[in-house]
């Protein structure tokens, strides 16, 4: 255990250090009063409880809250479009994938019209684009990813490589500090076809340099495929400005599309006609309703479709995307950095003396919108926090991950959550919880 603590000593502020930031609850309340995004909180369910024992939800980076408008939006599709319109509603449903994709492109991702498609899961979209990207680099037989990418990303990379007779190069990374571009540069050569990377690391929140790394991969003649699951809706993802090739991401975290919501994919416009994805479904067919005998890919982004999009779920996604677009990514990112900075400052002041270490980049400019803390008993701490009305999540090996979503989380919510964290640590309440780890998401 001493090895664990010494390995993280560099990330800890000295115990008892006086922060330059006013860490009183009154100061947090004053920041809420001046928050230009404060009005969005009322547009989510479960945010009207002001009691001292209220639920403090800090897991928006895993599953976003339910927007107030979503039930009515889904009900309208069910009752009117399906219930009354029946098959006559098909003409509007068939455009959902591209219409909502364009809204995502303009309001969230920094992409152009016709570059984003909504549908399928993040895993399926990653598979489609990875195979398409590898096919666009004939003669190259290496796929690069990092050893700390989200598990499904690494599994899919391994599966595609095995099926195509390719080699996987996994870059070792600091699980707290994220990818070092110099380490990536060392593995890039004329054999590399595709590089798969996360924009925001799922465990630590470390933020990668989207533009700089894209340029580095391009200099090696390879294609880069970004996973935006922990960045879309929380930090700027200027895909067009960065020259990004391909990207995927989910819509149920910061985009508040609901559990199991369909994901999205992005393909830069000038690449679309060069790529052929491996799942040849009728929604990717040029003349869909001709029911022809052979597959002929549709022009543009629609060639990356497969089957009928989940119409009911997409109604929820549209509401969530609209809220994020209304708030503005710039304002969301600024508040996310401020919420994270408050979390870190309170952890330094209250939790570090009890052996809690920062397991995220300290510089807010190098972090997404979640903060991760390390402790040998992180699993027990997570369970104790949940029982005290604070909802974080646990990540291996020994991390508590805190995700205050800027659309609906207040500064006083962070302050109160960290105060409960401090009190349970000081009282040793977590010691009563078993060390066994159950299923986590």
Quaternary class = single chain
Largest sheet: 7 strands, mixed
Poorly predicted runs: 1-18
| Mean residue pLDDT | 93
Relevant CATH superfamily of the largest domain = Type I PLP-dependent aspartate aminotransferase-like (Major domain)
Number of helices: 14
Q: How many β strands by DSSP?
A: 13
CATH C-level class of the largest domain: Alpha Beta
The radius of gyration computed from the alpha-carbon positions, rounded to a whole number of angstroms, is 22 Å
Q: What is the approximate shape?
A: globular
Tally the structural domains: 2
Provide a descriptive summary of the structure in words.
- With 441 residues, the protein is of the alpha/beta class.
- It has 2 domains: 2-65 and 328-432, Aspartate Aminotransferase, domain 1, CATH 3.90.1150; 70-327, Aspartate Aminotransferase, domain 2 (3-Layer(aba) Sandwich), CATH 3.40.640.
- Helix content is 37%, strand content 11%.
- It contains 14 helices and 13 strands.
- The protein has helices spanning 2-7, 25-33, 70-82, 90-93, 96-109, 122-135, 151-164, 181-187, 210-219, 239-242, 311-327, 329-351, 378-387, 411-427; strands at residues 56-57, 116-118, 142-146, 167-171, 192-198, 223-227, 246-249, 264-267, 357-358, 371-374, 390-391, 393-395, 399-402.
- Strands 2-8-7-6-5-3-4 form a 7-stranded mixed beta sheet, sandwiched between helices.
- Helix 2 (25-33) runs antiparallel to helix 14, helix 3 (70-82) runs antiparallel to helix 11 (311-327) and helix 5 packs parallel to helix 11 (311-327).
- It starts with a helix and ends in a 14-residue tail after the last helix.
- Residues 1-18 have low confidence and may be disordered.
């Amino acid at each position: 255990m001493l090895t664990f603590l010494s390995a993280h000593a560099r990330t800890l502020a000295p115990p008892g250090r006086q922060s330059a930031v006013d860490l009183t609850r009154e100061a947090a309340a004053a920041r809420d009063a001046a928050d230009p995004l404060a009005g969005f909180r009322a547009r989510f369910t479960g945010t009207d409880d002001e009691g001292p024992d209220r639920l403090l939800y800090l897991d928006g980076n895993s599953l976003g809250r339910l927007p107030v408008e979503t039930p009515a939006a889904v009900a309208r599709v069910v009752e009117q479009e399906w219930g009354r319109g029946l098959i006559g509603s098909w003409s509007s449903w068939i455009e959902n994938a591209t219409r909502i994709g364009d809204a995502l492109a303009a309001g969230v991702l920094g992409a152009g019209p016709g570059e984003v498609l909504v549908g399928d899961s993040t895993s399926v979209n990653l598979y489609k684009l990875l195979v398409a990207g590898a096919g666009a680099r004939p003669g190259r037989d290496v796929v690069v990813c990092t050893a700390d990418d989200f598990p499904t990303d690494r599994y899919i990379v391994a599966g595609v490589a095995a099926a195509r007779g390719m080699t996987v190069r996994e870059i070792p990374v600091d699980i707290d500090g994220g990818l070092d571009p110099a380490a990536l540069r060392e593995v890039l050569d004329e054999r590399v076809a595709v590089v798969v990377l996360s924009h925001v690391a799922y465990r630590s929140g470390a933020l990668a340099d989207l533009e700089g790394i894209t340029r580095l991969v391009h200099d090696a003649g390879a294609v880069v495929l970004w996973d935006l699951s922990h960045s879309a809706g929380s930090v700027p993802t200027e895909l067009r400005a960065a020259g990004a090739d391909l990207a995927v991401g989910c819509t149920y975290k910061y985009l508040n599309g609901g559990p199991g919501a369909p994901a999205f994919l992005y393909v830069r416009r000038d690449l679309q006609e060069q790529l052929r994805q491996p799942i040849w479904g009728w929604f990717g067919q040029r003349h869909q309703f001709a029911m022809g005998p052979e597959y002929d890919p549709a022009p543009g982004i629609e060639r990356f479709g497969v089957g009928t999009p989940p119409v009911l779920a997409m109604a929820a996604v549209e509401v969530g995307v609209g809220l994020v677009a209304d708030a503005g990514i710039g304002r969301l990112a600024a508040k996310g950095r401020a919420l994270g900075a408050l979390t870190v400052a309170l952890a330094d002041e209250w939790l570090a003396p009890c052996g809690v270490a920062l397991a995220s980049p300290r510089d807010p400019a190098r972090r997404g919108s979640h903060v991760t803390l390390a402790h040998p008993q992180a699993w027990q701490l997570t369970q104790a926090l949940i029982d005290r009305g604070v909802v974080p999540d646990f990540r291996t090996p020994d991390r508590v991950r805190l995700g205050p979503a800027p659309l609906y989380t207040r500064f006083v919510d962070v302050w109160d959550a960290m105060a409960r964290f401090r009190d349970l640590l000081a009282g040793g309440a977590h010691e009563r919880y078993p060390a066994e780890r159950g299923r986590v998401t």
